[in-house]
Amino acid sequence: MIGAVPPRLLPLDSRRSQALTAGLLVCGCVATLFLDPDHPVGFEVCAFRRLTGLPCMTCGLTRSLCHVLRGDWARSLDYHPAGPLLMVALLGWALWVGAEAAMGARWREDLRLRLRNHLLTWGMAVSVVSWIVRLASGTAP
Fold it and tell me: Is this prediction's pTM over 0.70?
């Protein structure tokens, strides 16, 4: 193509950073397979719950992620309905930044921003709605 602008290449340190991010995301997901999915952290980490005695909007999300990564979708949804969405976001992010690190250039930054905004919006909406329903019904984890 005449007049086509070549892709802007990423500096080497950015490529390394993206490769490291992809690796850490994958390692973090794999590490959950070695944790007890019902007690992955081992202690209460929710400051909101400690202060109020009520679960926060994201209570159960770590346990949900642990179960969905094991393929236990029903148990994952019991803990938090946004767990599968979080899994898709984390693994998608790892693939995306890994591919960009390998290519050495940003890929479809417009699409990345739209996907990020949609995932954040849907994740927040699912979390808020499920939080309200669980508080009202007394079924919070």
Answer: yes
| Phi/psi of residue 106, nearest 5 degrees | -65, 145
Check: CB of residue 69 under 8 Å from CB of residue 26: no
Which of 86, 102, 79, 77 lies closest to 28, judged by CA?
86
With tokens 């994952």, the residue in question is: 76
- Provide the number of structural domains found in the chain: 1
Band (pLDDT 50/70/90 cuts) for residue 75 is very high
What does the CA dihedral 89, 112, 124, 32 come to, rounded to 10 degrees? Answer: 20
Domain of residue 119 covers 12-137
How open is the CA angle 92-87-12, to the nearest 5 degrees?
A: 35
CA distance 64 to 60: 6
Helix extents (H) in the chain: 12-31, 47-52, 61-69, 73-79, 83-103, 109-137
Interacting residues of 62 by C-beta distance below 8 A, sequence separation 6+? 40, 41
